Amino acid sequence: MAEARHRRIAADIERRIAAGEWRPGGQLPSRVDLAIEYDVHEQTVRLAVALLRRQGILEGKARRRLAVAYPPAVRTLTDPDGDWPYGREVIDAGTCRASSDLAARLDIPVRVTARWETLECWDPGGRSAMLVTSWWRGRRRHHASAVFEVGTVRLDARQAQAFRLPMDTVALLVQRTRLGAGGLPVEVADLVLPADRWQLRM
After folding, report:
1. CA triplet 17, 127, 141: central angle to 5 degrees?
2. 75-200 belongs to which homologous superfamily?
3. Rounded to whole angstroms, how far apart are CA atoms 179 and 173?
4. Is the separation of the CB atoms in 154 and 170 below 8 Å?
5. Distances (CA, A) of 43 to 7, 32, 34, 155
6. Number of other residues whose CB lies within 10 A of the CB of residue 6
7. Which of 94, 103, 177, 179 has the fewest CB atoms inside 10 Å of its own CB, making it the most exposed?
């Protein structure tokens, strides 16, 4: 019952935001005031707020007033091999045996050990803007050039959570291949970008 209540409150706050009662950047009443208004325990409001923050509708840190989040800016990706100008973090890394697809992309034998890592790149507001998973064999090497293929992909559960979007949402996929001086692949990567936040111009 409490779970259903916090979801109903979250839906009502979202409805009030859509109706213009609170605008992007504007502050909401405190959690205490919302609890009084909705006639519920403050913890129920905290659950509703946590849900809206995960969805990217509200922003604000613990013990601070909440604000309506601005919609994510639409950015243009012109150089998928360029340095990311904002914050980023390695969120996972490890080794794997190359599948036939990865082996073909890296031009290595199937089942050879490759290294990989996933970077989460943030926009200036600290929201997830892009996920980049890279694979390479041995030590990382400098590259002389890069080539790209563009397509789409449906977000898996982890990607959807990072972007605060529903699972199976269609996203842009840029497959990047970095080439050494001799023209052979030294590293490949999948760049996953939410389609509602990006346009490509390469």
Report:
1. 165
2. Chorismate lyase-like (3.40.1410.10)
3. 19
4. yes
5. 13, 9, 11, 31
6. 21
7. 94
Chain CA centroid to CA 185, Å: 27
Q: How far apart are CA 77 and CA 198, in angstroms?
A: 7
pLDDT tens for 2-49 read: 568 999 999 999 999 989 999 888 899 999 999 999 999 999 999 998
In single-letter form, the type of residue at position 104 comes to A
Q: Give me the residue spans of the domains in the chain.
A: 2-68, 75-200
Rounded distance between C-alpha atoms, residue 152 and residue 95, angstroms: 25
pTM: 0.69
In 10 A of CB 125, how many CB atoms?
12
Q: How far apart are CA 170 and CA 173, in angstroms?
A: 9
CATH number of this structure's domain 2-68: 1.10.10.10
Copy the structure tokens of residue 189.
Answer: 């990567």
- Residue 18 is inside which H or E element, if any? helix 2-18
3-state helix, strand, coil in the chain (%, to 5): 25, 35, 40
Quote the tokens at residue 37.
């208004």
**How far is residue 84 CA from its own chain's centroid?**
14
